[in-house]
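cron nightly-structures :: item 1 of 1
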Amino acid sequence: MNIDPRFITADQLLDPSVDARALEIICGHRQDLWAAVRIHPKCPPALAQWLQNEMARPDFNVPQQQYSPAQLQQIQATQVTQATATKQNSNKLDADQLRGKFIPVQILNLMIIVTGAIGALSLFMPVLDLGSLGSYNYFAEDLTTSGIRYFFFFLIGPILGVAGMITKNKQHFSGAATAALIFALLTAFVSLTDISDVNDLLAGSAGIGLYVMAGASIALIVLGALQLFNLRISPKGKSSAWQSR
């Protein structure tokens, strides 16, 4: 027999070089293979009977299989690969989550992208109309800093949403929904407050940009909340806390 009996596996027992003598040697080293040896075609009847009697004893315990250093290294490498694949797969949306509860995840994600883009465009529309004095947007000289800040607020969600559509990664979808929800709460408060304040001015009124900004913000709040609810759906379709794995 060309196989070391200390490190032989059950599959290797089928090797043609494994004869009756080899089986006896294996039994002396590998108690965990007794069951496989007992039913081996070349196992002598006397050895098979002895193995059956030994395994029938109440105090018989099957030990863990022994491995050579090379086999241990291969097993460890396989375990690392499987663990990495499991983690990567766990970050992917499954079919139930893609379908969503009310609206498919991809559709909601696309709506977040479009609505965020509309909100960003609203910043270039008139937000203050002073009649004969003209109108101003959030990128006017005195409002540029606010315009840049709100522009970022409206685009961070869509940027993550595009990444989610490319990767199908739960974290990207969740990030897009969370960013849209948080920043939309801020822009909704700002736009609604500005509409009220500007309309109180005797010399001016709120421009269309503020109304579009408010509408986009409110829509993003709803879409972000629905998306986060979708991502809490377990693979079986039941609601459970979404976990980053």
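cron nightly-structures :: done
The first strand starts at residue 128 and ends at 129.
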